[in-house]
Amino acid sequence: MSKELSKYYNEPLMYAIQYHKEGLAVIPLKFKTKEAAIKWRQYQKKRPPAIKLEKWFKKSEPKNIAIICGVVSGNLIVMDFDEEDKYYEFLNTIDEDLKNIILGTRTVITNRGRHVYLRVDSDEKTFRELFPSKRSEKWHVDFQSEGKYVVAPPSVHPSGQKYELEGEWIDIKKVSIETMLKIKRVLFPEDKLPTEILKTSKNASFNKSQKKNGLTEADMLEIANVLAPAYKEGFRNNIVYSLSGWLAKAGISMEDALKVATFLAQKGDDPDYETPEFRNRLDVVTRSYEKWRCGINVAGKKYLVEFLEGALEDEEQVISIMKRLEELIGVPSTSSGMIFVDENESEGLVYYADLAEKYIGKGQFKDKSGSKKTFLKKGRIIEAVPTKAIRYIDPISGTENLDIVFESNLSPVPLTLQGVERRDILSVLKRNGYIVKNRIAEDALNAILNNMILSGLVETKTEFSKMGVFWYQGEMHYTKIKLPEEIRR
C-alpha cells in the first residue's frame, strides 16, 4: 500500500477519536462521498461509543467522516457556506463582535466554501425550537442543526480535494442564545421573532409544569396580570430584568421566563410588542439566565420591589403584588447551581461543581475591593457532575458503595452507575472521555462528593454487603439472595 493511500486508512480514525473526546457524534461516510456508510438515524439521539469508531474506521476500505449536528453533539450548529465569496461577504456584513466570534471558532475549508462550527449554550427544547436546520438562498448557506450532518476533516471530496481546517485546530466556540439569534437574523431576516415561535410552537403546552419548579399557563398569565399595572414606559426593561433574575434563581426554565415576558407585554399594552424592537426585551431575559448559569449574581426579587415602588407609588399595592408573586414563583435559591469546596483556604483556591454547565472545575476567590471578592474560573477538571446519589454503608466492614448519576454536556444521556466504589467511578469517567485533568480529578471528585454528603444532598443507607446473619445494634439482621425460578425448581 502506498503512503499516499495509507493515510486515508489511518487518519479518519485518529480524527474520529479526537472528535469523540470533544463530545461530537461521529459516523463514517463512503470514501470520497457524502453518503453515510451505515444506518445513522439512531445516532442523532445518542453518540456512538468509541469502540464503534474503531470498528468503522479500521476496516479494509478507506472512509470519509461526518459529524452529526444538533443536541447530540452539544447543541452544535455548522454554517455550511457553498461559496467562499459568500462567506467573506457575511464576515463583512456582521458587526465586529460577531466577526471575532466567527474568526475565533473552528472553521473548515471545503471544496468551494467554508464550514463554521458553533455550539449554543441552551437547554435542548429551546435549542430545537429556536435553531432548526434550514437554508438561505441569499447567502448560499445551509444552517446545519438537528437531523443533519456535515463532512469533516480529513475527508476527501469527490474532486480529490481534502476537507481541511482553516488555521490551527481550535476549540468550537460556545455562544449564548442571544448571540446565535443575532447571527441567525443576518442569515434569515424574514424569520419569526422568538415570541412568535413560542406562541405557535406545537410543543408549547402550558397545561402542566415541565419541571419540578415549572409554571402552568395559568401561572404565567396570573404573573402578567399582577404586574401589568406597573408595566409602564420607563420601567418595562427593569421589571423584565429583575423578574427574569428572580425566575432564574427560583429554578424556572428560561423558556417559561420568555413566555412570561411575552404575556406581560400583551397584558401591559407594550407598544413594541410584535415589532423588531421587542427582541431587545427578550434579550434582557436571556442575559439574566446566561449570567446566572455562569455563577454571576443577577437582579431579582429585591430589585423588583424597588422598580414596582417607583412605577406605582403605592406601598400597599406593591406588598399585595409581591405576596401574590411569591405564591406563584416561590422563593429564590441562594445558589446559582454551584457547589464550592475549599482546596487551599488561605489562597482562596476551590474545587467547584457547576450544576448548570455540568462540569467540575477549579477556581479561586480573589479580593476585588474592600470586603468584596470575585471568583475566577481556572479550568475544567471533569466534564460531568453528579446530580443524584445514594450512599450505602456496610456497618460491619465500613465499606461504601454508591448508586450515582452523572450528567454531562458531552452526552444527552445521563451516566448511571449502581453499586460502585469511588475508585471505580473515576475509571468509568475516564472511559467515557470525561476526564480533562487526570492528576487532580480524583481529589476534585472526592471533595465534591464529600461536600454533597455533608450538605445532605446524598441519601445514606445502611446495607450489609455480604450474605449472612448479623447481630447489629441489639438486633438480628440477615441478608439473602433471590434465586432465579429455574434454580429454585
UniProtKB/TrEMBL annotation:
InterPro entries the record matches: DNA_primase/pol_bifunc_N
Domain (DNA primase/polymerase bifunctional N-terminal): residue spans on this chain: 16-180
Pfam families noted in UniProt: Prim-Pol
Superkingdom, natural source: Archaea
Transmembrane segments: none
Signal peptide: none
Protein name: DNA primase/polymerase bifunctional N-terminal domain-containing protein
Native source species: Thermococcus celericrescens
